[in-house]
Task: inverse folding
């Protein structure tokens, strides 16, 4: 990472115990959201039903020359925390778990 602020945000999370997969999920979430915003604009209530389909389509396709990315100013300690929380919530829903409490009982999500 060439941008010192991004390196600091990542270093801060590593110091607080984040694993590489936490960082990778948060960064991927940030990049995909930036690409979707560039491609479709901000999500609206009408587009939220398609958002998951767009998100996973974008996440799982090969990168191409000229793909938009998240700007360095958007990759902050707070944005990475929000992105990881979003990933956790999405994972819980995918697993069919309806609450954080249920997840904490079944697994120690953030310790792996």
Result:
């Amino acid at each position: 990472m060439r941008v010192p602020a991004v390196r600091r945000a990542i270093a801060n999370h590593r110091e607080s115990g984040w694993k590489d997969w936490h960082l990778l999920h948060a960064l991927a979430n940030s990049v995909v959201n930036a690409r979707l915003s560039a491609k479709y604009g901000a999500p609206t209530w009408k587009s939220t039903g398609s958002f998951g389909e767009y998100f996973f389509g974008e996440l799982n396709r090969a990168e191409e020359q000229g793909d938009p990315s998240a700007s360095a100013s958007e990759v902050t300690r707070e944005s990475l925390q929000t992105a990881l929380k979003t990933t956790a919530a999405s994972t819980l829903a995918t697993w069919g778990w309806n609450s954080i409490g249920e997840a904490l009982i079944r697994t120690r999500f953030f310790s792996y």
About this structure: The helical segments are 4-15, 20-40, 48-60, 77-94, 100-106. Residues 4 and 96 are 39 Å apart (CA to CA). The chain has five helices and no strands. The two ends are 25 Å apart (CA to CA).
